[in-house]
Write a structure and sequence with these properties.
The complex is a heterodimer of chains A (111) and B (113).
Chain A lengths: L2 E3 L4 E5 L4 E3 L2 E3 L6 E6 L5 E7 L5 E3 L5 E5 L4 E6 L8 E9 L2 E4 L3 E6 L1
Parallel strand pairs in A: 2-12
Antiparallel strand pairs in A: 1-4, 3-9, 5-6, 5-10, 7-8, 8-9, 10-11, 10-12
Chain B lengths: L4 E3 L2 E4 L5 E6 L6 E7 L6 E7 L2 E5 L6 E5 L5 E5 L8 E8 L8 E2 L3 E5 L1
Parallel strand pairs in B: 2-11
Antiparallel strand pairs in B: 1-3, 3-8, 4-5, 4-9, 5-6, 7-8, 9-10, 9-11
Classes of the chains: A mainly beta (111), B mainly beta (113).
Amino acid sequence: AQSVTQPDIHITVSEGASLELRCNYSYGATPYLFWYVQSPGQGLQLLLKYFSGDTLVQGIKGFEAEFKRSQSSFNLRKPSVHWSDAAEYFCAAPNDYKLSFGAGTTVTVRA
Amino acid sequence: DAGVTQSPTHLIKTRGQQVTLRCSPKSGHDTVSWYQQALGQGPQFIFQYYEEEERQRGNFPDRFSGHQFPNYSSELNVNALLLGDSALYLCASSLGQGSDTQYFGPGTRLTVL
C-alpha cells in the first residue's frame, strides 16, 4: 500500500520568493501521486497529478512537481509565490479505492 | 460543467441526534467517496460507493452509513452524534474504481454541541 509523508508542518515564505513543499512516498512500484490545495474553510482543489511518464508535472496556478524515484519524493514547487497561495497543501496517494493523505503543510505568505 | 456539489454548507446538531449530508458528483462520474477532516488534520477516508454499493470502508464505526442513488448522487448518514464527529465532511467523485483522480466538493461543516 502506498503512503505519503509531509515532513514540514508549516512554511513561511515572502511574497515573490520561491516555494518548495516536500512529499515522500512509500511504495514499491510506480506510484500515483497527487497534490491538493485547501484554502481556509474550503474543499480540496487538485493542483496536479503524476501517473507515469514525464517526471516533471505541470499543474494549475503556476505549480509544478517533480517525481524522483531515487529519493522517493514528489516535491511541489512554485517559482514566485503570491499572497493568494497562502493555504494548506496536501500530498496524497491512492490505496485501493481511497486516497491516503499526508498531514499537510500550511503555507504562510508574508508581504 | 458542474463540479462536485454538497449540501448543506453548514450544520449544527446536538449530541445524540442524527444527520444526513448530501453529495452530487461531477458530471460523468459514477463513484463517490466520503472523507472526514477534523480541524488541523488531513482528510480521513470514511467509505466509497460505486454502482450503489459500498466498495471500501475506512476505520469508522457503524454509526456512519451511506447510500448511493441510481443517478450516482450520495448521502452520508451519521447516527447518535458525538462531540468528536464535529468536522468538515468532504465528498469526492471519480470515474470507475482504483486510482482514478478524485475531485472534491466544498464540504459540509458539521458542528456537534
